[in-house]
Amino acid sequence: MAESYLTLLEDVKNDRRSGAWVIARKTVRCLDALAKEKASGDLKELAGEVERAAAEILKSQPGMAQLVHFFNAIFTMIEEGAGTDTLSVSRKISGEAKRFEELSKNAVAKVAEYGSELVEEDSLVLIHSNSSTILEILKKTLEKGRIFQVMLSESRPIGEGRACAEELAKLGIQSTYYVDAAISKGVECADVVLLGADSLSETTLINKVGSRAICLLAREAVVPCYAACESSKFIPAKLSPKKEPPRDPSEVWDSPPDETTIENYYFDEVALDLFDGIITEEGVLTPEEIGGRIRSQNLSRKLIKMLK
Hints:
By secondary structure, the protein is an alpha/beta fold. It has two domains: 5-109 and 300-307, Four Helix Bundle (Hemerythrin (Met), subunit A) (Up-down Bundle); 118-295, Rossmann fold, CATH 3.40.50. It has eleven helices and ten strands. A hairpin with a 2-residue loop joins strand 9 (277-280) and strand 10.
C-alpha cells in the first residue's frame, strides 16, 4: 500500500540529515501522493492542500531553493489554468512532479560529470556534511577509474558526516573522519575542497554550518575550493531565507547549566567569491555568470508572497 501524503509530508518536514537533493525528491513524492489522494475531491480543496503542504515544507526546510522552484512550477501551472476539474489538475500536478524529478536527476548527473574532472588520481578530497550531489561526483570519479581518498567532517550538531562516511565505505572509498574543530588539519592536506549547497543567490551560498570556515581555511592554505549546485538551487537574494533562528539546544547539550545559553545553527552563508568556481549542469561557472542567470528567473506571485 502506498504511503499517504501526510506521512510523506511529516517525513520531509522532520528530515534533518539528508542533503537537499534527497529532500527535494521526498517532496516530489509527497506532492504526487497528495494529487492522487485528492483527485476525486473538490478542486478548491486540492489547491488549498497544495498551498498548505508547500507552506509547511518551506517553513521547516528554509534555504532549500530546489523546493522553491518545484512549488513555483506547481503554482504557475495552477495559476495559468491547468483545468477546471479536479482530476485534470491532479494529473498535471503528478506530471509536473515527475518532470521535475527527472530534470533534477539529469542536472545532478551533469554536475557529477563536470565535478569528477576536478578530482585527480591519488588526490585527497575534503568534503563537509552529507551532500548527495557531492557523493554523485565521487561515484562518477570512481567510474572513470581514478583512485582517491576523502577527508570529511562530523558535521555537528546532527553529525550527518557519519552517514556520509558509511556511504563512502559502501563504495570502497577510503576516508578520514575529523571532528569539526579539527577540520583545519584536513584542509591543510587536501588537494581540493568540494562542498554542496542548499541554495545559491547572486552573491552568496547557503550550506551546512561550518562551510564558511572551511572556505576561509582553504583560501589561507591555497587549496582549490568548489561548490556543486545545480541551477534548480538558484534563488534571488530578496527571496532567500531570513536570518536562521537558533535550533533545538538539546541537540548540542541535553542539560547545560542554567547560566549557559546554547546557540545551535544548521546553516552558513558563504560569499561566492570564496569559491574558485560553482559546478553546475552547464559547467563550472564564475560568480558573475551565476548572478546573471538568477536575475533572469521568474517566480509565481503566490510563492513570492509565501516566502516574504
